[in-house]
Structure formats: structure tokens, C-alpha cells
Specification:
This protein is an alpha+beta fold and 405 residues long. It contains ten helices and 19 strands. A nine-stranded mixed beta sheet has the order 3-1-2-4-9-8-7-6-5, with helices on both faces. Strands 10-11-17-14-13 form a five-stranded mixed barrel. Strand 6 and strand 7 form a beta hairpin. Helix 2 crosses helix 4 and helix 8 packs antiparallel against helix 9. The radius of gyration is 22 Å and the shape is globular. The N and C termini lie far apart (66 Å).
């Protein structure tokens, strides 16, 4: 690979529209191919960190996000995403160059709730820049028909951006295909899917991980779960790829005294933060594949929704109470946690991937939530001091209608 400094004049010419994005390929020596629904994207990167994180984030594979084997036949549409990682000062200088060359009024978007960004039109095409005052690393995303070029900083976290952008593309394509995102975690027990729905801090991750740790359990998703519903069949769930975010209290309650020896992709919280508390803002980020490697917990790729649980975790309590949630109340609770088309974290379709309008997406979400509301549902209150064996057994018993009160 040529020296990374030599790519700067090529990037300048690329942003000016004088050369094609393929001119960057000599610096993109790492390659991986992903399938996002019906779209196949060849990912070319200047660092193996980017492609390795794509592989890890999309493990296990699903029919919405999947790393394609090199010998697999490609079907559907194709695109290319290139990722160039540079020193932060170089990325910032390129960003300032784009701002000074804008030919049209900028368009403001949010990549997620904490990442404001702006589209600029320059001779080389539309370029998205992260806002310099947002306290996040500078980044450029150049969009052309059939391709994206990501110019990011060369630190470990920033090189994960390629995988995050691929997740975003898959998310919006899935919504176009009738999938709905819920603020929910999910696991399976005895092969039956359990959707755990609730606000942040309600105990979704805790309960899903506890269920997955049972003898016949498997972990499916954390915090964001995609749901599809076909007439005459039970709704199905697939994970939106993302890390499991948990604090020290949850980790210890699950039987793990410490994660100090775990070699994780994301750095662990420092000892002087609040991450050891059950409701600490600083949390451990563990990819599902890493959780499987460290704990042996099986991972599920998809599941029917056979039971919905609305949890409420109570601090410093031994409480355990489960009751049936009637369909009308379940529908209200599901509505409150529906992220399609308005996600409270991934707040906008900032890459303009979706072709469906807001009304169409809202109508589809209503249809899917109606199908979910007809599934068995329970509300569960449990304490941080309640033995998890008792909590998970109460959920297993909820599959029997006679056991719910």
C-alpha cells in the first residue's frame, strides 16, 4: 500500500470531482462484503480495524445484516463503500476545505441524537461533515451513485464508523421492506422468542441476558429489535446489530465478578466512573459475539415472538411480581417504544436511503404493532436483589396461561 500521506492529493482531486473514487483503491487493501437485505456492499478499507469490526458487529448474521463469504453468489443491487483512516488533523483540514467550497446552502441532519452533521454540495458531489462544535471526531462521507467514501480518523473508535454506517443503511432498507424497529431486547428459551420491551433503565438487557443464560436459552438482541409480521404467522424478530451495554451491577448479578480480563473491542469504563452501579451512566460495551466468547451464551439469529414482557426493575428490592397485560394496554406500551419511523437515538434517515414516505412507514408500524399486541404479554416487576433464577422461572411459567395472575 502506498504511504498514507500520498493519498491526500488524490483525495483533493476526488473532492474536486477530477478523479473517480476508485483512485483511492490502492490505499484500501482490506476488503469485506456485506449483504443488507437485497443490497450487497463491497467494503474497501485502509485499515483492518474497520473490516474486523464489520465482521464482529454483524455476527451472528441475519437476513438483514450479513457478511458474505467470498465464494458466495451475489444477488440484487450492489454498491461500494470505501473507508480511508487518516490522522485527526488531516481529516479536520479536509472538512474545512469542503466547508469553504460549498456551492449550495448546507442541509443539517443528525447521524444520531448526539451527532449533528451537515450535507455540503461541492464539485465532487454531496459530502456530509460532522459538526465541529459537537465534541465528536471529524468525519467526511462522500456520496455518489452506487458508492460511499468514508474519511475518518485513525483511532480505534472512529474506524468503527464504517460498520455503523452499514448498520444505518440496513436499518432504513429494512424499514422500506416492512420491518419495524422496537426499543426492545430479546432472547429465546426452549426455542420460543421472548421480546422484552421498555424504557431505558427498565431492565431489558438484564432480563434478556438472564433468560439467555438459562439451560435452554439464547441471546438475540439488545435495545433495538426489528420486527416483521406476515398475516397468518407469528411476528418474527431479528437483532439490530449493536453492543450490549451493561453496568457492573448487572454483570455481577449475572454471576460475573469482573470483566477486567476481557479483551473487548471497545475500551472498558475506568474505575473512577459510575459504571459499577445498576443505573450508572457509564457502561461496558460488549458485542454479542464477544459475550458469547466470554460467557458461552448461545446466540440466536431470529425468533418468533411468542411472549412479550414489559419489565420494571426495582433498586435494592427482592420483589417479584408478574401479571397478564391485556392487548389494549400492551398496544399502548408497544406504541411508546416504537422507533419506526421516528427513532429517538437514530433520529433521521441521514443517508437518504428510504424510499417509503412517513405515512407509509407509520401505517406499516401500526399493522405490525397490532399483530404484536395480539401475542401473549405480561408485566414483570423484579428487584435487583431478586435471584435471577426465580425471575427467569417466572417468565418461563408465563408461557402457561394458567400461571399468570
Amino acid at each position: 500500500m502506498p504511504a498514507i500521506d500520498q493519498v491526500i492529493p488524490v483525495l483533493d482531486a476526488f473532492l474536486d470531482g477530477d478523479v473517480h473514487a476508485a483512485s483511492l483503491d490502492p490505499w484500501c487493501t482490506e476488503e469485506i462484503t456485506v449483504e443488507l437485505g437485497g443490497l450487497t456492499i463491497d467494503v474497501l478499507a485502509s485499515t483492518s480495524t474497520a473490516t474486523t469490526y464489520v465482521q464482529r458487529l454483524f455476527t451472528p448474521p441475519s437476513n438483514l445484516w450479513n457478511v458474505v463469504r467470498p465464494d458466495s453468489a451475489v444477488t440484487g443491487g450492489t454498491a461500494t463503500m470505501r473507508c480511508i483512516a487518516l490522522p485527526r488533523a488531516r481529516v479536520a483540514a479536509l472538512a474545512e476545505r469542503v466547508r469553504s467550497q460549498g456551492t449550495e446552502p448546507p442541509r443539517h441532519v443528525r447521524m444520531h441524537v448526539g451527532a449533528p452533521a451537515t450535507w455540503h454540495q461541492i464539485p465532487g458531489g454531496p459530502v456530509l461533515l460532522t459538526d465541529p462544535d459537537a465534541g465528536i471526531a471529524p468525519q467526511l462521507i462522500v456520496r455518489h451513485p452506487g458508492s460511499f467514501t468514508v474519511i475518518t480518523c485513525d483511532d480505534t473508535d472512529a474506524t468503527m464508523n464504517t460498520a455503523r454506517h452499514l448498520r444505518e443503511i440496513g436499518y432504513r432498507l429494512a424499514e422500506d421492506d416492512g420491518w419495524v424497529c422496537l426499543h426492545a431486547s430479546a432472547s429465546t428459551v426452549d426455542g420460543r422468542g421472548i421480546l422484552v420491551v421498555g424504557d431505558s433503565g427498565a431492565g431489558k438487557s438484564t432480563l434478556a441476558l438472564a433468560l439467555a443464560a438459562t439451560a435452554t436459552g439464547a441471546f438475540l438482541s439488545n435495545d433495538r429489535t426489528m420486527i416483521t409480521a406476515t398475516p397468518g404467522a407469528a411476528p418474527r424478530a431479528v437483532a439490530m446489530p449493536g453492543p450490549i451495554r451493561l453496568n457492573g451491577g448487572t454483570l455481577q448479578a449475572l454471576g460475573y465478578a469482573s470483566a477486567d480480563q476481557w479483551d473487548l473491542t471497545r475500551p472498558q469504563p475506568t474505575k473512577d466512573t459510575d459504571w459499577q452501579r445498576f443505573h450508572g451512566a457509564n457502561k461496558l460495551h460488549v458485542l454479542p459475539s464477544e459475550w458469547h466468547e466470554r460467557t458461552g451464551t448461545p446466540l440466536a439469529t431470529t425468533a418468533t415472538v411468542d411472549l412479550i414482557v414489559f419489565p420494571q426493575i426495582i433498586q435494592d428490592s427482592h420483589e417479584l411480581h408478574l401479571r397478564t397485560t391485556p392487548p389494549g394496554q400492551a398496544r399502548e406500551l408497544l406504541n411508546a417504544q416504537c422507533m419506526s419511523p421516528g427513532d429517538n437515538i437514530y433520529v433521521s434517515d441521514w443517508l437518504d436511503i428510504r424510499t417509503s414516505g412517513a405515512d407509509e412507514l407509520t401505517s406499516n408500524a401500526s399493522r405490525v404493532l397490532g399483530a404484536l399486541a395480539d401475542r401473549p404479554a405480561v408485566s414483570l416487576r423484579f428487584g435487583t436483589r431478586t435471584p435471577y433464577a426465580a425471575v427467569t422461572e417466572s417468565v418461563r411459567a408465563a408461557f402457561s396461561p394458567a400461571s399468570r395472575v
